[in-house]
Amino acid sequence: MKVKVSAVSYLNTLPFLYGIKQSGLEQEIDLSLDIPSDCARKLLNDEVDLGLVPVAIIPQLKEHHIISDYCIGADGPVDTVALFSDVPLEEIENIYLDYHSRSSVTLVQLLAKAFWKIKPNWIRAEEGFIDQIQGTTAGVVIGDRTFGLSKKYKYDLAEAWKAFTGKPFVFAAW
């Protein structure tokens, strides 16, 4: 029986996929490539045996074991996990929370409260929300969809975390 594995479908997962292919384990794995929130859902619902999942869901798992030091993490700017806005932080009234993410959603809420000291209205994003990022409405956007996205202000969440804590941040772990 093959081990069911869910991994993130973004470019930053390519090194892991390369490693799996080079290991010879590919024949023993039923691999699905998913957006991070679907990786989380699949592991929470026991649809997969193993996943590269957002760290924000770890406390929700009935049983969990981090099985590797490999992760999607950062010790500085990443450019692919950011808050995009037309206005500076202190003028933001609403923030869309990317439906692809769980860890980045938790991170931006923590940064808003403890680091930036802002109190926006939080909006659960749906498909097409990126077009709604305008005026005093900002949005968290993650992954490959950040490529080519341009707003006057782009706040890299990993960079903000590092400035706030002096520590690296782990977005997803095996």
Tell me about this structure.
The chain folds into two domains: 3-73, Periplasmic binding protein-like II (D-Maltodextrin-Binding Protein, domain 2), CATH 3.40.190.10; 81-173, Periplasmic binding protein-like II (D-Maltodextrin-Binding Protein, domain 2), CATH 3.40.190.10. The chain is 24% helix and 28% strand. Strands 8-7-9-6-10 form a five-stranded mixed beta sheet. Strands 2-1-3 form a three-stranded parallel beta sheet. A three-stranded antiparallel beta sheet has the order 4-11-5. α3 (103-116) packs across α4. It has helices spanning 14-23, 36-44, 103-116, 157-165; strands spanning 3-8, 29-34, 50-51, 53-54, 71-74, 81-85, 94-97, 121-124, 137-142, 153-156, 169-173. By secondary structure, it is α/β, with parallel strands linked by helices.
